Amino acid sequence: MSNKEILKLIKGQLSPEKEKEVVDWLLNNPKKRKQYEILKAKEIAKNLRKTSKSSSRHTIKRIYKYAAVILVVITSSLLTWQLSNKNDFTDSEQNDTSLVLVTTQKAEKKVIFLEDSTKITLNSNSALSYPKHFKGNTREVVIKGEAFFDVTENEQKPFIVTTNEGLKIKVLGTSFNVKSYPEDRKMETTLVTGKVKVIEERKNTIVELSPSQKATYLKSEDKMIVEHVKTENFTAWKEGRLIYNDTPMRDVIKDLERMYDLKFDVSSIKILDYKYKGEFNNLNINQILELFEISSPITYSIQKNNIIRLNIEQ
Q1: How many Å apart are CA 292 and CA 266, to the nearest integer?
Q2: Which residues form the FecR protein domain (predicted)?
């Protein structure tokens, strides 16, 4: 996929079919998502410069425009025409089903509000795509990475989250967390309120979760596990907190790499299998590393290029 096609996506110049193809490709290519963000920022800056340069030339035109608006208000026939055209514009805008792509880099989070007031908190190194306006009988979005969803209830339009890896979550109105990074061994759905159906499409395995339940799909074993959990442990990342309860260090390391934009180098496989218990409450990485040494047999040394070497005491 070329930069030209990415730029056309940003400018809204692609057909619906091509638009979906480019967005799906970006969802599966983290490096290209970063390029997408850079191109989008440049395009916004370019448009702002154009607006700034043309503002002085259009000052007189704006005066005439405001005068025309006053005449429209005074003349009832013109007012009727104006309202009619406004409604046509609104209908055209609402029929716009073009896709929106939101991405985050490492050490970055974003909050997104959809047109139905659903609130989505996107975790670091993640991507979310959704239509500008929901049409039909469902509200469908695609997530790559991790996000917390607070979904506005609508019984006529179920909300469906697709992980792009064969897992779907179907809800009416509820709040839940989805963690689905391609490089991870598992995908997790943690329900806070309401009810959700988790669907593994390949085998059509369906499980229904109640509050404080988590469904974990193990990729290599092609197996779904449902368990009761303390939901705070899986949603605290929104407030900058990370909570672990006998969590394998391989999972802790991945979280820290995404949250702090660094890389760990481990000296022994024993470190990856070590189960860590602790909480990091808005700590910097140095404080976390010191906690490792205090509360576990793991030691560290800082290398070049944001690489941290982990060792384990024998």
Answers
A1: 14
A2: 102-197
- Could you give the angle at the alpha carbon of 307 between the alpha carbons of 305 and 311, nearest 5°? 155
Whole-model pTM: value is 0.80
Please report the pLDDT score of residue 172 as a whole number. 86
* 101, β-bridge pairs: 129
pLDDT tens by residue, 200-259: 988 888 999 999 999 999 998 989 999 999 999 999 999 999 999 999 999 999 999 999
From 37, 65, 94, the end of a domain falls on 94
Question: Which of 197, 213, 233 is the endpoint of a domain?
Answer: 233
How far CA 107 is from CA of 239, 246, 257, in Å, comes to 13, 24, 8
Residues 40 and 60 in one domain: yes
> Residue 243 is encoded by which pair of tokens?
């909570």
Assess contact for 176 and 187: CB atoms under 8 A. no
Residue environment code for 19-51, b if the CB has 16+ CB neighbours within 10 A, otherwise e: bbebbbebbeebebbeebbebbeeeeeeeeeee
- Between residues 48 and 283, the one the model is more confident about: 283
- Whether residue 109 contacts residue 81, with contact meaning beta carbons closer than 8 Å, is answered with no
Residues 268 and 221 in one domain: no
